[in-house]
Structure of UDP-glucose 6-dehydrogenase:
Amino acid sequence: MRVTVFGTGYVGLVTGTCLAEVGHNVVCVDVDAEKIAGLEAGRIPIYEPGLEPMVLANHAAGRLQFSTDAAASIGHGEILFIAVGTPPDEDGSADLQYVLQVARTIGRHLERPAIVVNKSTVPVGTADKVRAAIDEELAARGAGIAVDVVSNPEFLKEGAAVNDCMRPDRIVIGSRSPHAVERMKRLYAPFNRNHERVVVMDERSAELTKYAANAMLATKISFMNEMANIAERVGADIEMVRHGIGSDPRIGYHFIYPGAGYGGSCFPKDVQALERIARQNDYQARILAAVESVNDAQKGKLFEMASRHFGGQLAGRTFAVWGLSFKPNTDDMREAPSRVLLQQLWAAGAKVRAHDPEAMAEARRIFGERDDLVLCDSPDAALEGADALVLVTEWKAFASPDFPRLAATLRERVVIDGRNFYDPASVEESGLAYYGIGRGRSL
Ligand code: NAD
């Protein structure tokens, strides 16, 4: 099938590439000319495992093209995806300007019937707004073209996006049009072979499904962080508690890791946006408000531990920081806990030597040149001259450090483990002080 994808970010580029991989003919459009020129030249703008070879192969095979020409790209697709950003507005609501811009562009240039599919995460009721924006443009030029608008939220995880897209847990199709549902099922048939993954529902339910999924996941994280905060006050180890509760199949082991707070481009903004949606509909979402406030506090946890250890005297200290991306296997630093830690350390007069396997360019872009930050080429280089190590992101590259060497290198022999990645006993046996999240010894 002929497909056009608006937006070549994490969602648009991965979706377009996976659709091309199974044989569809895809054009990816972006307003960012530099990004498109880079893609044309084989440069992938994001780090996502497995993405690069797939983009290159499909581009070479002619099934995946890149363009800044919206009008021509609209002419290409019988299915037009909207996968542009929906960043938070000033009040936390999702900013729909990019989604509606694409909708108007489609209305202005569409010459034949099409299915417009919204993949961006959007407030309930956006499918109606997209339809209205397209209709308005069609009416303005007297064009009577049939357009179906489908809500098809995306559930991929950064760091595993290609795999999630190729092997989705479920494919939510929000549409009340039998024709649109039939075409969408055909589009996704290659991803739906061994068992039924398609869940068909109305547009509004599909839109809410995405927010509900992210809110549930964020709730699990904040809940565990709250338990960790209790654990450390009563002398319990949250890691034992985690195993203890995860063994109940109603709870399960997935996604119940305490840590330095959730970040990324989705959970923070989606929890906030859902809270605003509730408020606009005369409901106060108390759980969501609590999830958010626990997370905000948790992002200050690593600094708090550092500050306590050094009796509030951080000026002139140097901290090695391992991991800057908001989670492993991505270069994305949007809302990353590392950013809060770095700002707090700098405000207290400390210096940072940081390493991340993939987010160094992004860190350079965000922070620029500054005297109190050295971006190091390796985990070891970050330790040189540092007083303490803070592990913020649990990349595999940081999984098994040589603790005796760490003890010999770190001036103050302190390890702050923001992900409970290390075994406290092994760290302490090497003569290092260990602080974890909710492990009865963090205060
Ligand atoms: P992103 O910021 O990485 O990419 C968005 C892209 O859209 C940018 O390249 C931008 O230049 C482009 N764009 C903006 N306006 C455009 C226009 N008028 N025409 C063409 N392109 C345009 O965003 P993302 O992370 O891919 O997220 C996109 C949407 O998907 C968001 O609503 C997000 O909430 C949702 N989502 C993201 C993830 C994720 O893990 N990143 C997962 C599921 C859903």
